[in-house]
């Protein structure tokens, strides 16, 4: 039975239903990784297997399986499984239910290693021989690095709120002012006000307060602190991926008001991608954390279209 590595935050009243809990490990069993699986709905043509990769300040289930009363299709995993996708997500080491005991800050490279272990576990059980990978924010960096290292496992790659060099990023510029804080320890405290700051820093009003409240409750049920590694990496170590080595079909999604990366930074990355099955979409009315935005259904539409694109017949 896997060890419970949750933070023990009081008020653990969020229930996740309709899915399956899985565990895998790496480093000879030292690191235990939590995976959450929602199979494709029965009676629907099978479309493929998606691995959703979370960002810097929240675990996997709050990001991708958040049910909010009165908000139809709030769970991305439920929306995609209803359309024939086998859906998986996982907590990176240092987050949620996965191991948190090692004295490291759980950065981007470590996260890509988690994805390598998690993807191997999923592919042993999947109906697909490759995965469709969607990552958001630092999860996009982890997903891109994983695709660079293991292209044979990736059918299609979607990078949401991605950043390449960090040039022209107001969010990262503000974070660099706190580098002494981020490098002083391996974890940083979070609370409800911090979760609200994710939505208010770029363009307030793009997400409903009730959704932010539900998101914050779900996050804080699992964690009261987050690793500092992705912040340190994004502020001081970019670029961490080489677009010329990511030779898989790729979609880049950028919120109209997202401050994590400039359009120029992302276009430069896009131009260097060698695979000619590639798309770049700017999402109007969206800042960061796109699945929690008022226009979340537009995000689903763009991602679904990319993942269900017909196979090429020429050349």
Q: Please name the CATH topology.
A: Rossmann fold
CATH class: Alpha Beta
Strand/helix succession: EEEHHEHEHEHHEHHEHEHEH
* Low-pLDDT residue spans: 1-14
**Count of separate DSSP helical elements:** 11
- What percent of the residues sit in helical stretches (DSSP H or I)? 25-40%
- What's the domain count? 1
* Oligomeric form: single chain
Strand order of the largest sheet: 1-2-4-3-5-6-9-10
Question: Which sheet architecture does the biggest sheet show?
Answer: 8 strands, mixed
Q: Specify the overall morphology.
A: globular
Q: How many angstroms separate the termini? A: 51 Å
CATH architecture: 3-Layer(aba) Sandwich
Number of strands: 10
How much of the sequence lies in strands comes to 15-25%
Structural class: alpha/beta
How much is the average pLDDT? 94
Gyration radius, rounded = 18 Å
Defining key terms:
315 residues, eight-stranded mixed β-sheet, 10 strands, globular, 18% strand, alpha/beta, Rossmann fold, two-stranded antiparallel sheet
Can you describe what's shown?
This protein has one domain: Rossmann fold. The termini are far apart. With 315 residues, the protein is α/β, with parallel strands linked by helices. 34% of the residues lie in helices and 18% in strands. The protein has helices at 60-64, 76-81, 108-125, 138-149, 170-176, 179-184, 192-200, 209-222, 229-236, 263-272, 296-307; strands spanning 20-26, 31-38, 48-53, 85-90, 131-136, 154-160, 187-189, 225-227, 250-255, 278-283. α3 (108-125) crosses α4 (138-149), α5 packs across α9 (229-236) and α7 packs across α8. It has an eight-stranded mixed sheet with strand order 1-2-4-3-5-6-9-10, with helices on both faces. It has a two-stranded antiparallel sheet with strand order 7-8. It is globular, with a radius of gyration of 18 Å.
